[in-house]
## 1
Amino acid sequence: MKEAVRTWNVICGPTLQRVAKLTQERRDKLAQRLADDLDGLPGWEKLCHRVVRSPFLTGDSETEWKATFDWLVEQGNLIKVIEGNYDPPRPNPGPDPANDVPNAVGRYPDGSTVMSRRAWGSAQHNPGDI
């Protein structure tokens, strides 16, 4: 248990509140999470890294709320972090032009035909529509 607390303090401590004392209640909850929900200490370390990569969990929100050790060792909260609920948003690569034009059919410079995915799907089901 002490190694898990040291891991929290090293990875999360500079950004979040450090753990100063490992009470029996904290010890029990941490032991349960390590045994049931994580792959022991390696899983805990990955989780700590995931927490500090989350803008929301590190206070970068309107409320400036930050995750704590006690919050994380609650099973429901830990599962949400594992499932990526608090991961930073992924950059939007933008629209897929092949899906934006419903029935786009065009020609490449060499004369070959190009069509959007929607048009291709439509052509597969209704060849006379294209």
## 2
Amino acid sequence: MKLFIFLVLIFCSSCAEVNQRVIEAIVLEEDLIAFIPDPAGERKQKRQNDIKKVLNVADSWVGTPYVWGGTSKRGADCSGSIYGVLKEAGYRIHRLTARKMALKYPKTKDPNPGDLVFFDHGKGIAHVGILNAVGQKKNMYHASSSKGFIDSEINEYYWLPKEVQVSRMEFYPVIPE
């Protein structure tokens, strides 16, 4: 199967139409999965719009009280707030713990706003937030057990040494019933 895909790529690389498009290879565990054409960067623009939508919803959650196991603006824990924000923004996501989210979404070495950031408090991954700023000042939205859903700087002494992973997720819209 891999040989067939490789031969198709060699053949297609000479096609004028394919040369005019950006082709992304989606790789999962070093196995080639699919090739997705992205004419005029449409996927990149859609992702940027998705991220803006999620961050706007997350900003509206600031001040939500911390409630262990909660998933709504009445109260939410860290992973519950991620679930609630994405659901309110119109995206499909399973309700998972921070640890399971870290296993589900692929790691990235190039953090961007909208990515999930995971923290280890000494017993494995136990906290998650959504990046909303990167660079010199790295910030995240997250549910603090003492302050509720807030916007925090990650570069502070408390969070920085505990950061263990940044993961990128795809945004899949909820399909209306």
## 3
Amino acid sequence: MNTPQPVDAEGFLINTGSLAKVQPAFKPLLDNVRDEIMSVWSETVGSLYIRGSISVGHAHEGTSDADFVVVARIIPNDFVEWSKYRIKVWEQQYKMVSEVDLALIDHQSLLTLGKSNGLKVNLATHSTLLAGNEILDELPKFKPDISLARYLFPDINETFQQLRQIFVDEIYPEYQYRERSPKFWCDWTMRTILRSASVLATTTTNSYHVELLRCVQHTVTIYPELLSDLYQAYEYSRSPIDDPKQILGFLDDYLPKFIPQWNTICYS
């Protein structure tokens, strides 16, 4: 069922994350990460969250990532090096997840920086607190309308230009303290395509979706002409490729169809 993110009586998106929804298979990982981080870094960590599919009970063993967020009072340099090592250990120990990610951001930057907009929306809609102080009440509230599209992608043209340039240069940046492959950036790019298309449809439907297949299904109710492109992006996300020419060919075919639609609706 293509069920949208629920809203409250005033039309604001509701956080559907809860510890009670975490599937049993993932609880040992969450407990271990929480205990290790808080035993070593309790003076640094203001809040520790799990976000995404695990927090809402929709994770799949062996394919879902474990996305942790540390909101820090301060960020000591040695925390990053410690995290790099511990992430490798957790990934070796807990094979039920495909990857462990640990986003680290200080409290003030989370609240004020535009580059954290996507993280704020994700925390506000798909997260649950594991340790520390609950800060979701400090985040903005979001309605599924044009304001959400503009908030998530304030400059969609620049976003795709930067992603496209990665494959032009064939230089693949680090992300979350580790080197990343062409397949990682293929997946990232395709997820950006799917979620930006879906949130563009949100401006008409006033419903918000995050799960990738639902993003496709939601978008094509408004933009059926993008059907084949979005299903191809979905397949590239599920099975990323490492051929930059093939990725660029897809982007150069898709973006001229999508960007004018976005500019007309969101920048008018």
## 4
Amino acid sequence: MFAGLKVAASSCLITICCSLATVFADTQQNQPLEYKAHIALVGDSTVTDSTGWGIGFAACMADGVKFSNLARNGRSSSSYREEGLWDKALKLKPDWMLIQFGHNDQPGHPGRENEADKGYRTNMERYVDEARAARIRPVLVTPLSRRHWGSTKPNEDRIVSTLEPYVDVLKSIAVKKNVPLIDLHLRSKEVYQSLGKEGCKMISPLKNGEIDATHLNEAGSFLFGSMVAMDCRSFIPGVASHFRTSKLMELQRSHPAPSMSKPADVAALKLAGEPLARGKKRLQ
């Protein structure tokens, strides 16, 4: 959907999502006492409220929808279960549960890594089966791509992702088990390439003074969180009424796209893990 977008259009998306951070409520602290639906997130740091797309996703929810972000930093498809986090998630019995793992299943994460077509496949299939057994409707989300660019021609301006084997496994599970899938990996790659290397700095936090090419700052959270929310609205039966879109159009009209003709001010970017700005209300 985003492939081939002009830089101006992509920067407008970022402006809209940045604006959401000053408009919407702290959804974690203002849950409805009585709710018509409960939606939960399970995953790693790229899904959390502080360094992932979680808070942007929650901001798009309509009033009366309960939200639980159960994602935890550094977890893989195996360690999340081993630490007892999955059992706690099942006990909450949300109506829908979005599940995203992959980053920490890759090599280089001792005690947590899983081969894509072996341990990872087994773990993800178990999550689907056990969620359904608990009468929870699972939704698979392919892992947010890292912002790693090719080092040699012809890939210098293209995202090179090592997460593809994990993405392929999730897609095959979705077909095999007839479970909804949100392809965030593909969408994020398309957005990165539309923004370009400099534009991607606008959605990247800093870590130890360097650009963090994995996690998201508040602009990135609202950009991709709202994207996941709208895909849920479009492709998952029974979910559409739990999200609102009118505010996105209003923000697009009232906040013109910033100029991206100059390099992003890296020094002004948010540190990874810095609390996100909180607003006063949700998307209406």
